[in-house]
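Sample intake sheet
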Amino acid sequence: MQRRMRWIKLGLIVDPHKKKTVGVSHVSVPCARHLRDDTFRIYYSERDGQSRSLPTWVDVDIIRPDRILDAADTAMFSLGEPGCFDDSGITPTWLLTHEGTDYLYFVGWNLGRSVPFRNALGLAIRPAGQSQFRKYSNGPILDRSIHDPCFVASASILVHSGYWHMWYLSCVRWETTPAGMRHYYHLKYATSADGIHWERTGKVAIDFASADEYAISRPSVLATANGFQMWYSYRGDRYRIGYAESRDGVEWTRLDHLVGIDVSAEGWDAQMVEYPCVFDHNGRRYMLYNGNRYGETGIGLAVLAA
C-alpha cells in the first residue's frame, strides 16, 4: 500500500526581502547542483525593475539553510537580442550533468500582443573545467509546434537507459475570462538522443484532473528502482504541489493525496506552494519550492521525514 509522504519544512533559504542578487523582486523556480560536502548552488531567476526574469544563483549549506555562503553579482548570461525567444526574460528550469558537461535548461520569455506572453525552452552549456555557462544557440531548442500550439515552458530532464527524457509544460490554449486572458497548460513527454534535438508525439504525462484546473507546471522527476516519481505544481484557484508515479516514465498515475506538503497556517507560504525541485543528498530527500505569489516571498527548503 502506498504511504503518504511527510515533508518537514526547514524555512526560507532565499528571502527576497533580505537578499537579492541581480533583480529587485521575486526569486522563482529553483533548481539545485551539489558543489561539495553539504553545499549546493541554487539556480533561479529574479525580476529586474522592468519585471524581466534574470538567471542567478546563491550557494547554501542545506544543513544550515538560513546562511547564504556566496551569491552571484551579475546575471549568469544576458537576455536575447530583440526578436529572439528570450528577449523579455530568462528563468532557469532544470540542471543536469552528463559526461562532465553541465546542461542548464531555461525558459525564455517574449511579451505578446493578443496574449500576455509566450515561452520557449533554451539551453546553456558549461563544459567540464569551465566556469561560465554559454547559450547553446540564439534560438530555442523546444518551441511551439503541432503538438504544443501556444508555448512550452518549465521542464525536467533525465538521462536514463542511454536516452534523454523530458517532461515539459505545454500550453494548449488561451481563454478570455472577465479577469483577462487565462492560459491552459499541462505536462507532456519528449525524448532525445543528445539533449538538444527532441522528438515529440503530443503524449500527455500529467493531464488536468478536473474542469477547475488550468495550469500544471514545473515537473521534477526522479528515477527509482521501480520506475519514476514526479512532483509538480497544479492550480485552479491557487497553486499546490502534486505527485505522480510511473513504471516507464510515459504513463503516469496522479497521487496528489500522497504528496505530504501543503500551505502553512501563516507566513510566506500560507497562500500557495509551487515550483518544486526534489533531490537526494546523503540518504535524505529534499525539496526546494516557492510560496506565495510565484516567488515574491522566497524560496523554501523541506526534507522528507524518515
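Comment: The first strand starts at residue 7 and ends at 14. Residues 15 and 298 are 5 Å apart (CA to CA).
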